[in-house]
Amino acid sequence: MSFSSSSSSSCLTELMENKRLYISLLSYVFLLRIFESSLTPYTCFINFRCAVVTGANKGIGFEICRQLALNKIQVILTARNESRGIEAVKKLNASGVQNVIFHQLDVKDPTSISHLVKFIETHFKKIDILIVDKNGDYLPGVIQETYEMGEECLETNYYGTKKVTEALVPLLQLSKSPKIVNVTSSYGQLSHIPNDELKRELDDIDNLTKERINEIIRSFLRDFKAAKLRENGWPLTPSAYKVSKAAINAYTRLMAKELKYILVNCVDPGHVKTDMSFNTGKDVMEGAKGPVMAALLPDEGPSGVYFEQTVIAPF
Ligand SMILES: NC(=O)c1ccc[n+]([C@@H]2O[C@H](COP(=O)([O-])OP(=O)(O)OC[C@H]3O[C@@H](n4cnc5c(N)ncnc54)[C@H](OP(=O)(O)O)[C@@H]3O)[C@@H](O)[C@H]2O)c1
Known about the structure:
Elements: H1 2-37, E1 49-53, H2 59-70, E2 73-79, H3 82-94, E3 100-104, H4 110-123, E4 129-132, H5 147-172, E5 179-183, H6 196-203, H7 210-225, H8 239-258, E6 263-268, H9 284-287, H10 289-295, E7 306-308, E8 311-313
Parallel strand pairs: 1-2, 1-4, 2-3, 4-5, 5-6, 6-7
Antiparallel strand pairs: 7-8
Bound molecules: NADP nicotinamide-adenine-dinucleotide phosphate (NAP).
NADP nicotinamide-adenine-dinucleotide phosphate (NAP) is lined by residues 54-55, 57-61, 79-81, 84, 105-108, 133-136, 156, 160, 183, 185, 268-269, 271-272, 274-277, 281.
């Protein structure tokens, strides 16, 4: 009797143990499901610093992505052409660089910009670095610069930079260490502008406004159409490219003043061997060094400055 009573009690204990185990297992599965539902394919990258690079399927932008990724930054490589962008990421992955993903972005297209913003909000919540590096279909080396080419150049280089920056600033403001880098050119330096009054105005950051930059661009295009570029002291060949970069430089300084929490700088990569330079100049690895250095500046680093590669130089 005593045997049978002890055996039934041990049986009961075992049953209780199993039940407890079963309940714990159920709770575990339940919690796992909740956790899983909050995951996205990119959740594993959320603790990484995240960078968006525009126009990055080739040239300097592509190399910037590679160097940032090697610095343990999660990179969103963007390009306007989806297959060229995917190919670029595959190339990086094949060389052992894994923390790079692709998202389509045409800097001129507001719908494309808002899709990128939604993608980041969903999967990354914030970004830490924005590098605006792209050059429109306009090649500064061309001899005959038409009005249409000039207009397209300003639309891509200046207004494209502005649209992407303004859309991504709210996501940069969620970063502990936000940086914006605009890739510019020595052609954008004020020394290329013959009109002294215009030069003075673009350099007077305390009084310059974004509206005034827009007006300056409109008057440039008017003069371009009316063949009055030389007469009115605009930079010549490649005229629109120089004006677009001078406008980006001035915009960089205004943004640095406005967004005190973000380091906003522009970098001239120098003469770099890419399609744009007809494959002349230094290696892209050298050309990407300046923009990457500006992206990785310490938080107390400079803001609103022009880097000639890695050295601060005058606007
Ligand atoms: N290379 C130099 O010697 C040099 C010198 C000074 C400054 N820079 C500056 O460095 C930057 C990069 O030039 P790079 O030499 O690397 O030129 P690149 O090899 O010609 O590359 C330009 C990139 O911009 C992309 N792009 C053009 N329009 C776009 C748009 N609407 N939206 C998004 N991306 C667009 C191109 O995409 P697709 O492939 O689809 O055309 C390409 O990926 C430019 O800002 C340029 O002004 C270059």
